[in-house]
Amino acid sequence: MRNISRLTDAGIIAAGAALSQADQDLINSLTDAEVSALISIKSKLTPDFVQRHLGTGPAPAGRVIGIIF
Description:
Low-confidence stretches: none
Radius of gyration: 12 Å
Mean pLDDT: 81
Helix content: 40-55%
Strand content: under 5%
């Protein structure tokens, strides 16, 4: 649950997101370095960049962010 908490606190996972057990298992399998990298990347992106390029917006299950590398 630590990874989920860290990503929720960083705003990467929406508070109250309905994560399946498979989602939770995947997130919790990330290493500390991977979680830190996600948080670092998000903190460097400007709100304008996020709005224009990451496909954020309302969705039936909540906010969606798509990051494409």
